[in-house]
Amino acid sequence: MKAWRESASLILAARHTKRYIRSSSTKFQYNYNLLCLKRHRNSKFLPNTYVFPGGVTDPSDADLKWHNLYTAFGFDTNSFTSLSLNTSNRPQIFKFRPNELPKEVSLRITAIRETFEECGVLLCKQSQEDRREDFGWAQYMNISESELYNWQTRVHNDAREFYTLCENFNCYPDLWSLYEWSNWLTPTHLTERYDTAFYLACVSTVPQTICEVTEMENLKWDTPGNYLFSSSDVAFAVPQQYEIARIAKFESIHNLIDFAIDRSKMGVLLNLPVKIELQDGKVLVLPGDSMYPDKVNLLEKQIINRTDITISEFRDISPIKNRIELFNLQVKEFYVQNFDSADGHLAPLQLRNVSIAMTHENSKL
């Protein structure tokens, strides 16, 4: 049995019709919203938690027959070279497998398929020349509501139907509009684990969205600032909260796209939180933190016991901080200081009293 399942997730940003909207309780003014979906209350993991669209990979996402579809639109093997990176320390999720599409291709197909299945947004094109005026924007196809529901159900029941959908509508997944953003692996102390590649895509208008009701019970478009500071009823898992706190530094979607395009050329590094037990709570340290272990085994359960000191004392002895602090009294804080990411990312905003989904044995993170 595998130690974890591989998955892909899409951070989807949509430009406002208004120029800028000030987020409640913050000084930031944003001209875009992010899409988040609320997991069903009866979900086995992260019930009632908001997540980005996404899900586990399926063998059909990596099927070599996708070459036939792209060839019909004039693509060849060289068309995909810009998606593959030759950076050192490439995370394990991108490891090439014989008789499959490169992972940089198949994981993007997963993200696009799951986004369509869960909320009805189809990031596909019908022509190589079908491009927007602004470089970097993703495009989505409009499908009638009746057809949309039918195809969502078909793809939900059988991932192979996504290829059939593309044939039916004479379109192809727009891989090139998804920018590699981050990679998170569920901590070793949890039994249900996922290795997830996160991508970012931006659209120029808010698309029609319809929830797939067996997995999701609601969806929400809102500014990064409102997710972080004004939505006390919205709980996120750690990766989603951390990534929104990064994105929240960009008030303009145009600046976000420019950053995503440039940064994606550097690839991503693996984020594996390591749990540290302290007197008054616990801390999840992330790579780059002074207290992050020199050697981390991806498979063996690792919990560091420092119950001889408090969270505050642990903070004082750490020159570089990249961590999430969870006090026993339910105060949750993102604490990042003196930290420069090796993959070109900005540090997230420092947050206090954020709504983080509490983890348990069967949760993702």
TrEMBL record:
InterPro entries named among the record's database cross-references: NUDIX_hydrolase-like_dom_sf, NUDT19
Superkingdom of source: Eukaryota
Name under which the protein is recorded: Nudix hydrolase domain-containing protein
GO molecular function, one term: hydrolase activity, acting on acid anhydrides, in phosphorus-containing anhydrides
Protein source organism: Frieseomelitta varia
Keywords on record: Hydrolase, Magnesium, Manganese, Metal-binding
Cofactor dependence: Mg(2+); Mn(2+)
Family: Belongs to the Nudix hydrolase family.
Gene Ontology cellular-component annotations: mitochondrion
Stored CDD domains: NUDIX_AcylCoAdiphos_Nudt19
Cross-referenced Gene3D superfamilies: Nucleoside Triphosphate Pyrophosphohydrolase
